[in-house]
Write a structure and sequence with these properties.
Layout lengths: L4 H21 L36 H28 L5 H9 L16 H14 L1 H21 L2 H12 L5 E4 L15 E4 L6 E12 L6 E8 L4 E8 L8 E2 L14 E12 L11 H35 L12 H29 L5 H23 L13 H13 L4 H13 L6
Parallel strand pairs: 1-4, 2-4
Antiparallel strand pairs: 2-3, 3-7, 4-5, 6-7
Helix pairs in contact: 1-2, 2-4, 4-5, 4-7, 5-6, 5-7, 7-8, 7-9, 7-10, 8-9, 9-10, 9-11
Bound molecules: flavin-adenine dinucleotide.
Flavin-adenine dinucleotide binds next to strand 1, strand 3, helix 10 and helix 11.
């Protein structure tokens, strides 16, 4: 499906204008709008809203609400209709990235470089809107925005920022983030990829090694690869430009036949003495600080995103349960066992969203810690997966049909619980912070 240019243009100014206003008014919540009372008329009891039970919207600024609505409209109207076929075909339509770029959804928290410059909460709301459709679309966007653009913004030289960020913001250049290796996943500090001085090309390094399970790698234009710098033995970040790699030095084969995240592309990165200009190395950051800083931003986004996927599971199951009749013509939604499944999932989605919102506010104040992000990434992914699996039961045999959408979310949510630190690894991070004792040795 092609997005009509005119329709995109209707959405674009909203997001970009909103971003500008939000700088001035970001800290002003809209709580003051609610429930004015007078002496004569008692305030009406507010109605319970199952889609936002604890009224998280009340904690958002007007600007954040507008951004969220823009993102939701795009996602529901434009990418939802494409996802079923994309998932069946194991295909990612690259045009989606350009559409997101047009709307200002990419690298949205970055100031300048044609990025929208919105709050962390607004970027979380965007992420949630995208993942309500599919975790694969959110993954492709998160890798682009948080892992690669975020890394360049945080650690890149001015030349690297000027060269890559504006084109990535528009979706004209697609990024991939290469940290995981075939033999080193949860323990990336043991990576084997290495950067040595190039034997013949002055001003170049020679990069060798293999990365696996890399989102976007088969079609990425710029690959942020983490490797050990031979001179110091420390991990450094390298921007590998596909168009500049001589034949045979860079291969990015796709990993096919996945049973989750099929609407995003995943592959390997093989580097065989690939010449990389020294100017493409991040200048200062060394060790795991580089990749872990990028991962913090992406994990924060995942914590929001999976709440979108869970909310979609809740909405689908609720509709199904209200329509499906069993035993004397009763909708199955009338039975308490079904209601409990919806109550549990709705409670977890609500708590998870509020926790992500709180961490987002702290992030914008410079008060968020990596452990907070581990906590919300772990908890929200675990609860989203567990509840989605339970809600799948509401559909009976129809859960097995991909047209009901629930199985796709369940398969995707397993991946979200696994990547960017499997949940048990985040338990270790939290356990270390709570006890002061290191479990990783
Ligand atoms: C679809 C998909 C997309 C991905 N995209 C990217 C990407 O773009 N970039 C990238 O770099 N990576 C990516 N990954 C890789 C992902 O981050 C890793 O799969 C993840 O970090 C886990 O590593 P592993 O698969 O090697 O598992 P392992 O590290 O082998 O872990 C296997 C199991 O052992 C457990 N375990 C390991 N060590 C311990 C311990 N000390 N104590 C207790 N339990 C332990 C883990 O919790 C896990 O349950 C992606 C993965 C998938 C599936």
């Amino acid at each position: 499906m092609q997005l009509e240019a005119t329709e995109l243009n209707m959405l674009r100014p909203l997001l970009r204008n909103v971003a500008k206003q939000s700088v001035a008014t970001a800290a002003r919540p809209v709580a003051s709008r609610g429930f004015a009372t007078s002496a004569s008329a008692p305030a009406p009891t507010p109605a319970f809203n199952w889609e936002d039970p604890l009224n998280a919207r009340n904690l958002l600024t007007e600007e954040e609400i507008s951004i969220s609505e823009t993102a939701e409209a795009y996602c529901q109207e434009r990418i939802l209709p494409r996802v079923l076929q994309a998932y069946r075909d194991e295909n990612y339509d690259r045009q989606i990235l350009e559409e997101m770029g047009e709307l200002g959804l990419l690298g949205a928290t970055i100031q300048g470089y044609d990025c929208a410059g919105v709050s962390s909460v607004a970027s979380g709301l965007i992420t949630k809107a995208v993942e309500r459709v599919d975790s694969g679309y959110r993954s492709a966007m998160s890798v682009q925005s948080a892992l690669v653009m975020g890394g360049i913004e945080e650690f890149g030289t001015q030349e690297q920022k000027d060269k890559f960020l504006p084109k990535m913001a528009k979706g004209k250049l697609l990024g991939a983030f290469g940290l995981t290796e075939p033999n080193h996943g949860s323990d990336p500090g043991s990576m084997e990829a290495i950067a040595k001085p190039h034997p013949t090309k002055k001003g170049y390094l020679s990069l060798s090694g293999s990365k696996t399970w890399i989102t976007n790698s088969p079609i990425a234009d710029v690959l942020l690869v983490w490797a050990k710098y031979q001179e110091t033995g420390k991990i450094r970040g390298f921007l590998v430009e596909r168009s500049e790699c001589p034949p045979g030095t860079l291969e990015t084969p796709a990993i096919k036949d996945k049973n989750g995240l099929r609407a995003s592309l995943t592959g390997m990165i093989h580097l065989d003495e690939c010449p990389i200009p020294e100017a493409n190395m991040f200048p200062d950051v060394e060790g795991l600080t580089g990749p872990f800083t990028c991962l913090n931003g992406a994990r924060y986004g995942i914590a929001w995103g999976v709440m979108g996927a869970l909310e979609d599971c809740i909405a689908r199951s609720r509709t199904y349960a209200l329509e499906r009749k069993q035993f004397k013509g009763n909708p199955i939604a009338k039975y308490q066992l079904v209601q409990k499944k919806l109550a549990d999932a709705t409670t977890d989605a609500t708590y998870g969203t509020l926790a992500a919102l709180q961490v987002g506010r702290l992030k914008d104040q410079g008060k968020a810690t990596p452990e907070m992000i581990s906590m919300i990434k772990r908890q929200n992914c675990d609860r989203a997966l567990s509840n989605a699996r339970t809600l799948q039961e509401v559909f009976g045999g129809n859960a097995v049909s991909d047209e009901y959408g629930i199985g796709r979310h369940v398969a995707n949510l397993f991946v979200t619980q696994t990547y960017e630190g499997q949940s048990d690894i985040h338990s270790l991070i939290l356990g270390r912070a709570i006890t002061g004792l290191q479990a990783f040795v």
